[in-house]
Amino acid sequence: MRSVARGRTSPFTPERTPRRTPGHAFLTFPCHARRRPGAPVRASVRRLHFSARLIVFDLAVFGSLFLTLFVIMDPPGITPIFLALTAGRPARTQRRMALQAVCVAGGVITVFGLLGHQILDYLHVSVPALMIAGGLLLLLIALDLLTGKTDEPKQTKDVNVALVPLGMPLLAGPGAIVSVILAVQKADSVTTQVSVWTAILAIHVVLWLVMRYSLLIIRVIKDGGVVLVTRLAGMMLSAIAVQQIINGVLQVVQGV
Questions:
Q1: 202, 193, 167: which is closest to 114 by C-alpha?
Q2: Do 141 and 165 meet the contact criterion of CB atoms below 8 Å apart?
Q3: What CA–CA distances, in Å, run from 199 to 24, 170, 202?
Q4: CB neighbours of residue 21 within 10 Å
Q5: Is it true that the peptide bond before 165 is cis, omega within 30 degrees of 0?
Q6: For residue 158, how many other CB atoms are within 10 A of its CB?
Q7: Where are the transmembrane segments (predicted)?
Q8: What tens digit of pLDDT does each residue of 60-72 get?
Q9: How many CB atoms within 10 Å of residue 232?
Q10: Is the pTM here over 0.90, yes or no?
């Protein structure tokens, strides 16, 4: 009488039961060597979770700096100024100038974000002095827009306003520069550094989109509307310039 089936071990012979080792189970049951269909997906998900733990995005730092730069650089408010300064040029040139202005502003802010304190200390320039100087420069530009002097000289059509005043000090003004310097100084970890520079990149993308598609307004308002927008832009720019001068003077007085 057979008590043990073929290929099985009798429960009455424990000495013949093989020891379970990690390699023995693999050899005894070859089906375990097969890779399950969901294994690669789960492995990739685990790798993503691991990489996400390495760099965590600080949404609070990003939102704070992005909103600060949005208020200071004012993408909606830059639209009439951009239209006024680029009026009379071909649409292709205006689109190129919008990109150039954003690149100039991004380059200036990046340099001051990395070397801001060193540059100001080397030149012996304080932050309030930088704000007052930027305000005076903006005031001169605003007076030209209000009086219409920018339309009289013929050579102004060949001047690249994407560098000055669009790139700096309108976009990369003293307020934006100081905000970036302080944000970079406070960022003491990789997480906050990534959040700060992502916010800087995001606001420049927003600025480019606003100026790029503001060219559609020209087709609606025509030449008369451009003149009106130019006067309004001069008035708003003069108010911004005076406010910057006041802020700089107040900081000097409070520092004394």
A1: 193
A2: yes
A3: 56, 19, 5
A4: 9
A5: yes
A6: 7
A7: 59-85, 97-120, 126-147, 159-184, 196-218, 225-246
A8: 999 989 988 987 8
A9: 15
A10: no
